[in-house]
Amino acid sequence: MTAQPSLTIARILHAGYVFDCAGTRVAFDTIFENPFSRNCHAFPDVRFDVAAIRAQRFDAVFISHFHDDHCSLDSLDLLDRATPLYIYCGFDELFGMVKKLGFTQVTPLRLDEAVQVGPFRVTPREAMDAEVDSMFQVQTAGLNVLNVVDSWIDDGTLAHLVEQGPWDMVLWPFQTMREIEVLAPTRAAAAPPALPEHWIGQLQALAPRYVVPSSCQFRLEPWSWYNRAFFPISYALFAREVTAALPDTQVVRLDPGVAVRLDGTALQPAGRLDWVIPVGPQDVDYVYEGNAAPPPTAAIAREFPALTALQHARVMHFCLTELPARYAETEAACDYFDVPRVWQLTLYDTAGTPTQLRYRLAPGAPATLDETAAPVGWRTEVPAAKLYAALEEGEALTSMYLRVNDMVFEADTERALADADVVDDPLIRCVFGETFGAYQAAQLRRLMAGR
Questions:
Q1: Whose C-alpha in 63, 153, 258, 293 is 20 to 30 A from the C-alpha of 357?
Q2: pTM of the prediction?
Q3: CATH number for the domain including 37?
């Protein structure tokens, strides 16, 4: 009997996969680091055999977007430079960085324009935030797989994806993650222990044979309170709710290194990736405890190494000289900052000792240091080590342990804050407002210096 055509799908980590069909291997969102993005630790835990990864040969690598947990130059540095890279990104700077790393075949992806790699037809599909994200439709061996990566899907795209069915498998991002809520935990409501309602409707519309809880396969530092507050959905909850809503769909958990073989009738275990090595228990799950009583920023700052004198000087130069000028160039999305406000920025060193700076803010004007006794209208706290890392090493907002408005203000201020957005925070606007690829740029500088 002739064997059915089949596709082997192996999980690397987070949104990373290797697809193999008839000896052609394509990879997606290749992250070979643990931790990655500075403080994202594989969950379940694994280590990578770097020498074995360097020996891998992929017929193509597809990258869904530029975020550092999907496009890391440290990981790409392990690949053969002749590997064709296909990247969805609207910023030319990223392509320049990847080429400086030595890759010779780097191609920008366009929505709905398919790429043929041997038996694979890979088509980028539109995500809700098309300026940032993309999804991948992967067709091979008569099979149809949707890799949603960590995107959101709007109604128009959903209708288009339904037309592209039937779907054999959907790789679905199963964590909502509370990146914004943990910045202001005393002002954020705890998430309910349930999947977002629209997820179930979208999965029912797609009606796949199999669904894999995908992306978000990490925890933060072992000491971090984020581990109890950041991840509201467990594998068990996802499987229970999806199975109840889609009784004809099988939920399949793929841990790092695990592989399955998919054909037109069944899904079977396959040989694991031997360069993704399990460490400790693998049958682990998330535990969510609402906003989880966050420790003070002073205590968190003690977890990070002390800044050198030069690094401290860099932080203070930014706060005293660069930040005031940058503020004039930023604009808040809400009207809270349309009137003058006093902003208090507190930096904590590794001993938990605070340095407080007060600024007077006015729209369209530079921030000015304020030494009056005027009431504070916005407060930001951050470990000094993390601010330095954001300035010089491309640290992401989600790993800075920045805390916003962790106090009760005067009654009029509290009423006005009801319509303010956390990401309008003056420090966030001044550090992240117009930057692109800071993480990758810092990686490139380090990699080039090490050659």
A1: 293
A2: 0.95
A3: 3.60.15.10
